[in-house]
Design goal:
single chain, 576 residues, alpha+beta, Immunoglobulin-like, 4 domains, 4-stranded antiparallel beta sheet, 21% helix
């Protein structure tokens, strides 16, 4: 019973003490302090505002600080403690400030529930000045590759973060520039260096900046936000800011003068401001003479200094009649060399000649503006003549001389004159019955001979049916097998022999695919052949194999129907 009474008395005493302490507790004072003074420009200070009561987090209005300082971040914490049955409560704001200018600045009075903190005078010193006796622990250096550029001329920004203390954590923001695109180049580079006897860990980052409008622009450098380790002053007190310190460092603002496009630049050309722009070409095979049907690879490389990969123009190649061009997908590369971005576009063009002869490839011209000399220039690949020789692996078209053909009695390919019979005239000086009889017999004999000749000629010019002779032959069977096996290279080599098997015997044969396409004159056949050549010599970015089903169907249809061959069609070996 006694124990129960003692417990009740103790509980009553605690309740009374707590109620009395709460009744006596109220906000009575607001204090403010900073962690360092003087401070370097672009370097942060920590302003600590403490209220001796538990108040709302938004009870402190920090807007008066924005006049002279950049408010980087604010952290709020609360603490309640009880010592000898006495309860105390505090609310603390820690505000990271960055001075907007140098000189004597004032942190104004701050108000919480009618209570004011004292004003604080801050001395802000310019970096590198003689009055700066303390070397910075963390600072940012920035450098532009050029301060005077043209619209869309790429300029590089090098940002170096120097850290001379133990870093707990941190992050670096991106630079900003209105009216420009900014892209980071590569990855961060880390190194160590000693500046004025102090060792720093240096983190280097490079950006490519492309201004899209002219005028005087201001580049806002990136800001570092983090926490550094410091010696703890109160190990038993409230926590984290005794061991780490928030730090914000801002780089200097940079000015950039951007010029407009000069009036002297041709409006029909793409605007390409560059320090250097070149065109280069390579051939495979390297010889200047090529063969019909064999692919030729022309590699054109465009190199530009001070341009991004996306700014490089398309390389357009044209070719005369008789040559087909199959462009490959372009390869793009960029490399940072001596604070200059060098970009390169490399593109392969496959050329296939269908006829022998000399071809003139037109020149390739790319206009650009030299930012070093401030002059209009052109990068040119001049006209180039290539010689395409007949392919010895295929049968060539023989040229025939009509005069020689008419003089050759054994030539049965194309007779130049029709067969005629010449007779000596019979002169009858005196008519008699016997003479009339011999004349009648001679006329009958001549008529019978002429009838016999006509019948023989009709039998000799009768054409055989395509289905009985032309439809089934070894060349046709080989071509069908290659189509079924999806062998594009073998199909291309068997097409000309198969078409020649459809040509009547004794007629002029063809030697190239171009002649085969002209002779057959079938749209489906032309499309199928173009697909085969595009697969063999065109863009190889896809792994999908060529399928011979469509070509097989066309070949079977043409082989069954035969072709209408006109021996008067003349195929030219040289391009028109």
């Amino acid at each position: 019973m006694v124990k129960i009474i003692l417990k009740l008395v103790a509980i009553s005493f605690l309740v009374v003490s707590s109620s009395l302490s709460n009744y006596a507790f109220a906000l009575s004072k607001v204090t403010a302090s900073i962690d360092t003074n003087p401070v370097m420009s672009n370097e942060s200070i920590v302003l600590t505002v403490t209220a001796d009561d538990s108040v709302e987090r938004d009870a402190l209005d920090t807007s008066p600080l924005a006049t002279n300082f950049i408010v980087a971040r604010t952290e709020v914490s609360s603490q309640t403690s009880m010592v000898n049955f006495k309860t105390s409560r505090t609310t603390r704001w820690q505000i990271v400030l960055i001075p907007r200018k140098t000189g004597k600045l004032t942190i104004p009075e701050l108000t919480i529930d009618g209570h004011h903190s004292q004003a604080i005078s801050v001395n802000v010193i310019e970096q590198g000045s003689q009055s700066a006796t303390k070397q910075q622990d963390i600072f940012i250096s920035t450098e532009l590759s050029a301060n005077d550029v043209y619209v869309q001329q790429l300029v590089t920004l090098t940002v170096k973060l120097h850290v001379g203390v133990q870093l707990q954590r941190g992050s670096l923001s991106e630079p900003t520039l209105d009216g420009a695109t900014i892209v980071q180049i590569g990855k961060d580079q880390e190194s160590d260096g000693i500046i004025n006897g102090k060792r720093y860990r240096i983190i280097e980052r490079t950006y490519a900046i492309t201004p899209e409008q002219s005028g005087e622009l201001t580049l806002d450098s990136p800001m570092f936000s983090g926490e550094v380790m410091v010696q703890s002053r109160r190990r038993s007190g409230f926590l984290s800011f005794g061991e780490t310190k928030p730090v914000n460092v801002l780089g200097k603002k940079l000015s950039l003068n951007v010029r407009p496009i000069p009036d002297s630049y041709s409006t029909g050309d793409n605007w390409l401001p560059s320090e250097l722009l070149t065109l280069h070409q390579e051939w495979q095979p390297s010889s200047s003479e090529f063969k019909v049907g064999e692919p030729i690879t022309r590699t054109i490389t465009l190199t530009a200094s001070g341009l991004a990969k996306a700014q490089l123009p398309n390389i357009i190649m044209t070719a005369p009649t008789g040559i087909k061009v199959y462009p490959d997908q372009a390869e793009l590369h960029s490399n940072l060399s001596k604070e200059r971005l060098v970009s390169q576009k490399k593109q392969n063009f496959a050329l296939v000649a269908s006829q022998a002869g000399d071809y003139i490839l037109p020149k390739i011209t790319i206009a650009w503006w030299n930012t070093v000399t401030n002059k209009y220039q052109q990068a040119v690949l001049p006209e180039q003549t290539i010689t395409v020789l007949p392919n010895p692996d295929s049968k060539q078209v023989s040229t025939l001389n009509e005069d020689n053909l008419s003089q050759s009695p054994n030539n049965t390919l194309v007779p130049s004159t029709p067969l005629t019979t010449t007779e000596q005239p019979i002169i009858i000086q005196q008519a008699s019955a016997l003479q009339w009889l011999f004349l009648a017999l001679w006329l009958l004999t001549l008529m019978a001979w002429l009838i016999h000749v006509i019948v023989l000629k009709r039998g000799s010019i009768k054409k055989p049916k395509p289905s009985s002779q032309a439809s089934v032959n070894n060349k046709y069977l080989a071509l069908m097998a290659a189509c079924k096996q999806n062998n594009a290279e073998q199909v291309l080599s068997l097409l000309v022999p198969w078409v020649n098997s459809l040509v009547p015997q004794g007629s002029t044969e063809i030697s190239t695919l171009s002649e085969a396409i002209t002779l057959i004159d079938n749209e489906a056949f032309t499309t199928a052949i173009d697909n085969v050549q595009r697969y063999l010599y065109g863009n190889k970015t896809t792994d999908k194999a060529w399928q011979g089903k469509s070509l097989l169907a066309v070949v079977q249809s043409i082989n069954h129907a035969g072709i209408k061959y006109d021996d008067s069609i003349k195929f030219t070996l040289n391009p028109s």
